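Sequence and structure are kept together here, with a separate record for every protein. An example record follows, reproduced without changes.
>
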Amino acid sequence: MTDTFDVDVTRDLDGPVEAAWAAWSTPEGLRAWWGPGPFTCPAAEVDLRVGGRALLAMRAPAEYGGGDTWSTWDFTVVEPVRRIEYTFRFTDAAGLPEAPPMPDVPAEGHHEVEITGLGDGRSRIHMVEHGYTSAAARDMSQQGLEACLDKMAVYVAGA
């Protein structure tokens, strides 16, 4: 059995759970935050239900080549305004599986999202991504996720 390393990130947001949920459940919400730092999300489709799928593009800025990286999220658990679990896969634009673009990143990653109300119109996102096969890949993915959640915080605060 291969050791795996998990990404585990918690972020408090200045917005209610409904706004945090909208960040996950609407194309507009996903486009607002998917992609770290200067990366953007030019395309997002989402069918947030058990058995549903999201198809997203993350576009690199010109200094990183400007290309699109596509992924699908196949939803396995959906508890509205509370919990989402999904299988993450790198894909092509049609949603067909492709090899991960980086070493030690799983071809299929199990991801968990928990949204909690904190009172006073604030909420918390807790995310876990399972299956990285090196600490370096985990650390790089954690940095990317934290940068994405920085953008989500801006979206949720303005919702």
Helices lie at 17-25, 27-33, 135-158. The radius of gyration is 15 Å. The chain has three helices and seven strands.
